[in-house]
TrEMBL record:
This protein's name: Solute carrier organic anion transporter family member 4A1-like
Gene transcribed to yield this protein: LOC118429561
Organism listed in the record: Branchiostoma floridae
Keyword Membrane: yes
The entry's keywords: Disulfide bond, Membrane, Transmembrane, Transmembrane helix
Transmembrane parts of this sequence: 6-31, 43-63, 75-95
Amino acid sequence: MQNPTFVFLSMATVTEKGIAAGIATFIAKYIESQFRTSAGEAAMLMGLVSIPGATIGTLLGGYLVKRFELQVRGIVKMCTVLTLMTKVSLLMFLITCDDVSMVGVNTAYHNR
């Protein structure tokens, strides 16, 4: 606990893994309900975005460390900034679509 580099990298890893686990569990259902897609289409969309995104992110992170010759302190700063950017971008989950009108569920019958 006395090594700040270890503490901050551990906190970043825990935050990232927690977010990834939560998103991986529920994102397909969220996409399905919010954007009115089928379950298969939502799962395919999630896979098409997350797999290349994780691959590109890992490769880009390694490239940036090598390109800018970052030492431990620079890596910690980069990790902290990117983690904060990730948390801010989670606000996109507040985007919703209007509810679909369904007679008898959220719209009254007009002729009884």
